[in-house]
Amino acid sequence: MKRKINLFIILMFCVQMAGAQDVRFRNYNDVLLEIYQRYDENKVDLKIPAELLRADIDLFVRTIEEIGVNPYINLSKDAFYKEIKTLKDGINRPLTRREVMLRFVPVVNDLRLSHTLVFIPWKIFEEKALYDKINGKYLPLDVKIEDNRLWIAKNYSQTRIPVGDEIIAINDATSKTIIDNLYRYAEGATKYSKLMDIQDSFPIELWWINDFKGPFKIKMKDAVYTLDGLTSIELMDLK
To answer: How far apart are CA 21 and CA 213, in angstroms?
Structure first.
């Protein structure tokens, strides 16, 4: 019997097969739908024992080595094992799924494999409105990323803030610092696709990764604005 995976992780592998296709590989959307339907939001803050988390990490490493296609083509096995050891050594207490994902995802992304993905369940948190339950608010702005800088693409707030102008900092974190941090978690296979992933999911990633819950202090070149933020339902209604 296969041990149940405790981490909320989906590993997507493009496996090169010489023979017939393995019917056990299911449609990606079918897998996601099944997980959405059975996901228990009460487990969001559940602390998972450290030994189980470390065992899951070991299972991930064994899996990419057993069925992955040349997993160490971009990062040496020794370098990856060193990162894995540091990761596991740092897990010395129970962690929530979010806490362990924040540690785990950048390590996996260092492999730079387009066919291996750790999927952060943004959609579940949006649909279940879990963020609203902790009284959090999303940044009421759409952004555009150009030249590793942030620009306002659309403003959903009641505060009059110039669309098209550059954002210098959010909550005292520079735009470059924010982009560099979010980049470590982006799902794209190329630099461009990673930046587009950040751009498209910017408000929710600010919460998930930077823990920005509002209000938001937006520093522009000539002024500083304070935005109250919007709930997920309010934001979606305006988009």
So the answer is: 46
